Hints:
Layout: E1 12-17, E2 23-27, H1 32-42, E3 49-52, H2 58-69, E4 73-78, E5 81-85, E6 93-94, H3 107-116, E7 118-122, H4 135-143, E8 146-147, E9 158-163, E10 170-172, H5 178-189, E11 194-198, H6 204-215, E12 219-221, E13 227-231, E14 240-243, H7 248-260, E15 264-268, H8 276-285, E16 288-291, E17 295-299, E18 311-313, H9 325-333, E19 338-342, H10 353-358, E20 362-366, E21 369-373, E22 382-384, H11 388-400, E23 404-408, H12 411-414, H13 420-426, E24 430-435
Parallel strand pairs: 2-15, 3-14, 6-7, 10-11, 18-19, 22-23
Antiparallel strand pairs: 1-23, 1-24, 3-5, 4-5, 7-9, 8-9, 11-13, 12-13, 15-17, 16-17, 19-21, 20-21
The structure holds uridine-diphosphate-N-acetylglucosamine (UD1).
Amino acid sequence: MEDNNVNRSKPYAYEIEGGVPLRGDIDISGSKNAALGIIAASVMVDGPCTLENVPDISDVKVMFDLCRSLGAIVDEIDTHTFRIDPTTINTYKASGPLVSKIRASYYLMGALLARCGKASIRLPGGCDFGQRPIDLHLKAFQLMGAKGARPSEINSGIVNLTAEPLHGAKIYLDIVSVGATINAMLAACKAEGRTEIINAAKEPHIVDVANFLNSMGAHIKGAGTDIIKITGVPFLPGNFTYSIIPDQIEAGTYMIAAAVTKGDVTIHNLIPTHMEPLSAKMREMGYQIEEGDESIRVYLNDPSDEIYSTSVKTSPYPGFPTDLQPQTVVLLCSAEGQSRMHENVWQNRFQYVPELAKMGANINVYERIAWVNGITRFMGATVEATDLRAGAALVCAALAADGTSYINHANRIDRGYEHIVQKLTSLGAKIKRVNIEEYSEEDTEA
Ligand code: UD1
């Protein structure tokens, strides 16, 4: 629908002619990370469920295919509504290549342990932000009585877990981890007795997964705080329809795209409180941020207004989201003087900086800090989307740039942004997908 002439099974780029201020209204889609957690959680329900507001993105398609590979029946009711019947699941094994396509496949560990009492899962893939261990996930399963969760028991990249049976436990996470919090929550829902997850992550999609599970019959309290309490139940009846929350990161990306192009965009179907870390920084920089009940308008009073430099540090929710870090660095490039971005969640999340430099950015990275010197304009260039959010940052820069840019590996961006070409075009952007020559390197998930 977005581009009839492009073959998406072949390498393609986004071609962007920059310099057009974005103007108009757009709707945010369902949250990628909530959808991935919820679809995985549907595997452990004992009846069918219907999911609404499912984003039409490639990561979600992979997760549905993973569910089908386990034997679940997944029916598309319309583009954003799916019915999942997990009662036909006939295996606890997920070790094929699909597993390494998305990082969120690790949620199948908790979900299959809860459903089948066993899980045999290949270690997940994931974009290269430095180390991405799953030791905390395994520690949580071990505390609940699962066998096979010691790192030394991982065999040729496959984790073989057995619940004998799972029991409730007090789980202290020494690092705030989104994935470990959700995985522990999944396993605990059907464990015998009570589980407490202490120092839990508080991201909006954790609350959404908990709300989904509660609507299926689970007993989870405290999601969204740092202590989550779960009383295990033997059966999750399901038979419910659940609507996924809007995507905080997609919304933030469009806020930044509107700002760097000095446009005027109202973004609908978002939750303004989820955007507060970004809204506060953007106000500090001089942007006008007008909040409605479910919308945010981003604009400048006058396009010649000064944009102030600032410093940003990523941290778990309600801190500044690391998944908006690359896009925010693009925004900082448009400020006067020197700004600072401190990446506090991932060890190595500045791989996109050399790509941004090809577009004229002046950024010095020292360990986990990027010192960003303001520039007057980005210049169009051919660049690589090194991962999903890095790619989104390059899109923002290209939209603001003088001249035409080609963003290669655009499939990585399509993993997490529904109908991005169509949405940006509706705001006046000049963007299209174009097939390009074969890449030599292997594609990986971000
Ligand atoms: C999720 C998001 C990802 C986001 C990240 C942080 C999904 C599918 N992905 O990833 O987009 O960037 O949250 O908001 O929702 N850690 C450990 N041991 C573990 C697990 C994590 O040391 O067992 C460390 C990580 O190396 C990292 C930090 O904890 O430094 C946070 O990682 P985590 O919150 O687990 O990220 P993900 O759930 O993988």
